[in-house]
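Input record, target 12 of the design panel.
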């Protein structure tokens, strides 16, 4: 699909073969703060999730795509549309590159660009939003690069360890809707 193909990466649907990849991401405690996860997932639950991944965004209210490097065909991370609201034509967006070595190389930027285009063109969404910790300067810069604007701050929103962290709500309005 050309819509989800960039210069160095492509985005694809989840496959049953992604079980170990998803298992490793969901159970990586170093990213639980970003994904708001508190407990590990077992392979059985992830297998069930993958068996239902065929549902379209109108059924599941989410779309999870795998970010793959074109040259090596390797899986790099995930990009999601979530909280899909077909009445108000909006969805949340989240992105994660699994390995720190894959970050800051333009893969996330290219994936975000592809999903924004897909959401605004094919799904005809009016707006996208993301929730980002005020401390996550890399993600804030990435989303700002594509025109996302901060529209609110959720004070002491997420408990991390023994402290609370603020979270920003950023939004991008489709200029063509």
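The sequence produced for target 12 reads:
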């Amino acid at each position: 699909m050309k819509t989800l193909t960039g210069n160095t990466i492509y985005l694809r649907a989840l496959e049953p073969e992604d079980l170990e990849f998803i298992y490793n991401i969901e159970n990586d405690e170093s990213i639980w703060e970003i994904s708001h996860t508190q407990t590990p997932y077992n392979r059985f639950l992830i297998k069930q999730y993958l068996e239902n991944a065929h549902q379209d965004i109108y059924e599941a209210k989410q779309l999870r795509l795998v970010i793959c490097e074109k040259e090596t065909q390797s899986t790099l991370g995930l990009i999601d549309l979530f909280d899909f609201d077909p009445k108000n034509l909006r969805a949340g967006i989240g992105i994660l590159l699994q390995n720190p070595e894959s970050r800051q190389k333009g893969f996330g930027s290219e994936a975000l660009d592809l999903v924004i285009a897909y959401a605004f063109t094919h799904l005809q969404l009016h707006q996208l939003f993301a929730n980002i910790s005020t401390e996550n300067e890399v993600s804030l810069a990435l989303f700002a690069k594509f025109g996302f604007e901060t529209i609110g701050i959720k004070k002491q929103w997420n408990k991390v360890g023994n402290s609370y962290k603020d979270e920003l709500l950023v939004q991008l309005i489709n200029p063509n809707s």
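Residues 50 and 100 are 25 Å apart (CA to CA).
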